[in-house]
Amino acid sequence: MTYGWAAVCPATQWHTLRRWASVRYSQAKQACFRRKGFHSRTGRVCTFIAKVRPMAHYLVTGGAGFIGSHLSTELVRRGHRVRVADSLITGKRSNLDHIPEVEFVQGDLADAGFARSVAQGCDYVLHQAAIPSVPRSVKDPITSNRANIDATLNMLVAARDAGARRLVFAGSSSAYGDTPTLPKHEGMPSNPLSPYALQKVVGEQYLQMFTRLYGLETVSIRYFNVFGARQDPSSPYSGVISVFATALLDNCSPKIYGDGEQTRDFTYVTNVVDGVLRACEAPAASGEVINVATGGRISLNTLFKSMRDIIGGHLEPTYVEARQGDVRDSQADISKAKALLGYEPGVSFEEGLRDTIAWYRTARAAATA
Ligand code: UD1
């Protein structure tokens, strides 16, 4: 572990300290001079130098994907060293364009040699790489098994052998299946309804076994329908908010599978980033499975209307047959995350939805300009 230098502007000390924690003083100073907005706001030159908190080395697998790229962005912002390993099957290299500090390595984590090489020297492994789709796993369970189970086992072995301090895994709310109890708490038995859900449960169990057997610290974070900027809307397996946003902005009628009364605990991506980064440090979290979500429940019909209100227009959805393996209701009990991680969903669903739609609007304008 190394320490970073920061140039601290007297007028905005904390903000600047965080922003520049990862760079050497000379780089920080040069970068500050380049940032006209920063200096015109303060009217001051950065003169004060401070030694700041330790930098750690993070491996983010799947870091060129939606959630992985948000994690990488926040880690860079906090001044850490970040290596991203991604196959680019679902991720995009361009998701990292805004953080050139990241070391990028392309490869397949189902190849044990590749997993071993990328884990070298890392303090923390954030294992986000997956084929994250229920319907895709129903259609092609073998490919999905390789990406979601083989790669996870390889990463566990690699993290153990590299002496990583902790591995944090992207679990899924799909583990709960259709158990009638709401909200879903971690003590409930899992009931996977799709290969994807089963693979995520197996991943969690592998993590707990590695903690017991080899002493590798692990945490599984169960994500609940995460949404936000950079979620790819272009595949038939894309998350519903990205699909609805794109359709409504293109003035097309979105499809609703089933009657639209199924509910989801939609979670804005920055809340997930906060939960995962807390899970790296929280002493009592090792060996645990923890829900990270908003803690609410919104039907697809309500979601559609909220999005149409924000975007405008009079489109109606097209109702089609319900999807195989689809869960009816999903809502998280987040009391364990609050207790063990000090987690609170800092951004509400409504605020996150507005920000997300604004992002898709801007991205669309840029693409059509
Ligand atoms: C599930 C998991 C989620 C996981 C994701 C990975 C649950 C409760 N959630 O999400 O944690 O990250 O898999 O794929 O199991 N829908 C439409 N129209 C569309 C697209 C989707 O009506 O164009 C519907 C789906 O049928 C579903 C809901 O919207 O009922 C959400 O779908 P989606 O965003 O794909 O995620 P889940 O499958 O719920």
Written overview of the protein:
This protein has 369 residues and is α/β, with parallel strands linked by helices. It has 2 domains: 2-54, no CATH class; 56-226 and 268-296 and 327-347, NAD(P)-binding Rossmann-like Domain (Rossmann fold, 3-Layer(aba) Sandwich), CATH 3.40.50.720. It contains 13 helices and 15 strands. The strands form 5 sheets. It has a 7-stranded parallel β-sheet, with helices on both faces. Strands 1-2 form a two-stranded antiparallel ribbon. α8 (195-214) links the parallel β7 (166-172) and β8. Bound molecules: uridine-diphosphate-N-acetylglucosamine (UD1). Uridine-diphosphate-N-acetylglucosamine is lined by residues 132-134, 172-174, 223-225, 239-240, 243, 254-257, 262, 264, 300, 323, 326-327, 330.
List the helices and strands and how they pair.
Elements: E1 2-8, H1 13-19, H2 25-34, H3 36-42, E2 48-55, E3 57-61, H4 66-77, E4 81-86, E5 103-106, H5 112-119, E6 124-127, H6 134-139, H7 141-162, E7 166-172, H8 195-214, E8 218-223, E9 226-227, H9 240-249, E10 255-257, E11 263-264, E12 267-268, H10 269-281, E13 288-292, E14 298-299, H11 300-311, E15 318-320, H12 335-341, H13 349-368
Parallel strand pairs: 3-4, 3-6, 4-5, 6-7, 7-8, 8-13, 9-12, 10-15
Antiparallel strand pairs: 1-2, 11-14
Helix pairs in contact: 4-10, 5-7, 7-8, 9-11, 9-13
Bound molecules: uridine-diphosphate-N-acetylglucosamine.
